[in-house]
């Protein structure tokens, strides 16, 4: 690897936020994708993927995702639903389901069922509960811990912190000793890159964690 010594300075405040958005997305990659199922206050289903997603605590487990405002400054349906009901389901996006997840990201009008639009099978959990995503082998049932507004208007996110109350694994993973983790090839997840690019998680390499002798 060739060391880097010269750098060009870019100050975000000197540029239109969309330009910085594209740059940042191409730097912070690959990003895991949360495929979020939610219900509105009146019971309408919603499904959407979000790539600003990660684990943020583990005892007890908690996940985070940032949901941006729409370009017109309004709140996305997913954020409205989570704030209204306090519960949502996070699934993962495999390579096989990536086309459907992409369709569900379209800016459909409020009240449109993305499960139907993207032809994603529904696993009902009962009245008032957001359904499972049949195309995902893993479902995280999350309870809203808090939302952290980071501003308002286009280009601004709201940080959503959710307590993972239940973890559901597909019967296809019955053979897995889950206490040691799920082998990555069994999920075949995709990651979000910059622009319209995604990456598969099939090109793996392994490095053992370093230790320090004391």
From TrEMBL:
Keyword Nucleotidyltransferase: no
Transmembrane spans: none
Organism: Nitrospina watsonii
Signal peptide: none
Protein name: Flavin_Reduct domain-containing protein
Cofactor(s) listed in the protein's UniProt record: FMN
The entry's keywords: Flavoprotein, FMN
Domain Flavin reductase like: 27-179
Coiled coil: none
The family this protein is said to belong to: Belongs to the flavoredoxin family.
Protein biosynthesis recorded as keyword: no
InterPro entries named in the record: Flavin_Rdtase-like_dom (IPR002563), Split_barrel_FMN-bd (IPR012349)
């Amino acid at each position: 690897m060739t060391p880097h010594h010269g750098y060009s300075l870019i100050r975000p405040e000197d540029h239109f936020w969309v330009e910085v958005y594209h740059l940042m997305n191409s730097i912070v990659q690959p990003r895991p994708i949360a495929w979020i199922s939610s219900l509105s206050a009146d019971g309408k289903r919603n499904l959407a993927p979000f790539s600003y997603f990660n684990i943020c605590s583990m005892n007890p487990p908690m996940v985070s995702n940032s949901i941006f405002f729409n370009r017109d400054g309004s709140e996305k349906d997913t954020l409205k639903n989570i704030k209204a009901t306090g519960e949502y389901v996070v699934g993962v996006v495999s390579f096989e389901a990536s086309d459907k997840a992409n369709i569900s990201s379209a800016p459909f009008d409020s009240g449109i069922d993305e499960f139907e639009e993207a032809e994603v099978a529904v696993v009902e959990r009962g009245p008032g509960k957001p359904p499972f995503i049949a195309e995902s082998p893993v479902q995280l049932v999350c309870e809203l811990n808090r939302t952290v507004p980071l501003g308002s208007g286009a280009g601004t996110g709201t940080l959503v912190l959710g307590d993972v109350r239940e973890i559901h694994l597909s019967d296809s993973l019955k053979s897995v000793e889950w206490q040691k983790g799920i082998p990555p090839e069994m999920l075949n997840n995709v990651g979000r890159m910059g622009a319209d690019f995604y990456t598969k998680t099939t090109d793996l390499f392994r490095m053992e964690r370093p230790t320090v002798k004391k």
